[in-house]
Amino acid sequence: MKLNFKHVFLLALLITFGTGETFAQQTKAANIDTLMQRANRLGLFNGNVLVADHGKIIYKAAIGYADAGKTTRLTDQYRFHIGSIAKEFNAVGIMMLQEQGKLNLDDKVSKYLPQLPVWADKIRIINLLQYTSGLPDIKWKTVRDDVGNMADLMKVDSLDFEPGKKYVYNNNNVFLQRRIIEKITGISFRQFVEDYELKPAGMNTAIVDPTEKDALVARSYDNDGKPDDLVYPISGWTAVTLDDFYAWANAIIKFKLISPVATREIINGVSPGRQSGLGGGSMDGDKMIGHTHDGTTLNYQALLVSKVPNGVTIILMTNNKQGNLYSIEKSIEAILEGKPYALVKRSFLDEFGNKLDSMSGEQIISFYNDLKSKRGNEYSFDDENTLNETGYYLMSKKRLPDAVVIFEYNTKLFPKSGNVFDSLGEAYYNQGNKPLALLNYKKSLQLDPTNDNAKKIITELDK
């Protein structure tokens, strides 16, 4: 057969292009592996990783050990707890039931759980999804099981605030979502997840509430080699493998379980930076743009980032928390984009949180700068997140004056960041200093005109 020269040229071009594309992906995978193996050698990552680029998995690895004694190597068949990301299963479950006409997000909790005190008649299901219910958190130090936690809720006389007026992230919101699902369906939350979410999503090895008897479950442990308990005080936590996690990520962005309209309800928080049922993300009409969610429980930590237009999915799961998954994820993204990337470093807050508890805001800044000058290559001093996280840590401890000091200093280090001025504005707002809160929110909005949260609070304060 006589070949046409034009056809030969096109064939050669396709082969060359395909080879070049394969080589590029191999280079990315090699760079990601170098990043992750270095992190492991430094004791900064132990766990499993999956990276997809342009819709194809280019890197999947199990790095380190499945146990505190470091006797069993991890494989990609190991299941990990994923902390708050497991709350996606109850959020999606609630939306599935709404789409089936079995509930409405505006329904009062008392409609399904009438045994609860009178405050249940004030809380709507949407408040549970948005963490705006006013419920107190679970008494983690004393509660032992679902029955005990329900008994604690029965003793609650009043809510911490009027539902819908404030945002407080806590697990009683999640607990009641799961009880509502059980009440409506007549089956356990575990059975509901297995039958109506895991199987339809193609998750073949995920397990709800693993116990000591279950094989291939990575055990979490601290830096002193002390293992954590595997069974949690309240139920409903799904542990997943890399393949499970990737299947779930795709089920969310491809709307396999719930519609785009329902997804939008639980991917947007009450304001930017606030958690929703799906963590956080963005949509353009009925198209998913991005989905991000992180989770921590004991020494397990997980992170999922999907950037849909580029076909990028990054999954990180560890059973030895180092507080650096976002930093690792940013470096992986840079590798995928062919940009310079930062090596993995230690978390300032995770390493020194206990030490900071006894320091004033000024002392923390002095300690921060001293550490930066002496050990700058070990810790993440090169972006705003280190001090921003520290400031929020202090706010969580009700140390508002010290948080203000930290946020103020961060605005001097990163004067072009709208985010750091937003954080400072929030600290002043919580302090009751409305003039300075307004000033900093306006500065934040000037630097970042897309900050809808700042717009909302500026409108409130201007009144």
For the secondary structure, the number of strands is: 9
Helix content: 40-55%
- Which strand order spans the largest sheet, edge to edge or round the barrel? 2-1-9-8-7-6
- The secondary-structure class comes to alpha+beta
CATH superfamily of the largest domain: DD-peptidase/beta-lactamase superfamily
In sequence order, what are the helices and strands, one letter per element? Answer: HEEEHHHHHEEHHEEEEHHHHHHHH
Number of domains: 2
CATH topology assignment of the largest domain: Beta-lactamase
Mean pLDDT: 92
Distance between the termini: 83 Å
Rg over C-alpha atoms, rounded to the nearest angstrom: 24 Å
CATH architecture classification name of the largest domain: 3-Layer(aba) Sandwich
Number of helices: 16
Q: Pick out the low-confidence regions.
A: 8-16
Primary descriptors:
463 residues, alpha+beta, Beta-lactamase, Serine Threonine Protein Phosphatase 5, Tetratricopeptide repeat, 2 domains, six-stranded antiparallel sheet, 16 helices, 9 strands, Serine hydrolase, TPR-like_helical_dom_sf, Beta-lactam-related, hydrolase activity, TPR repeat
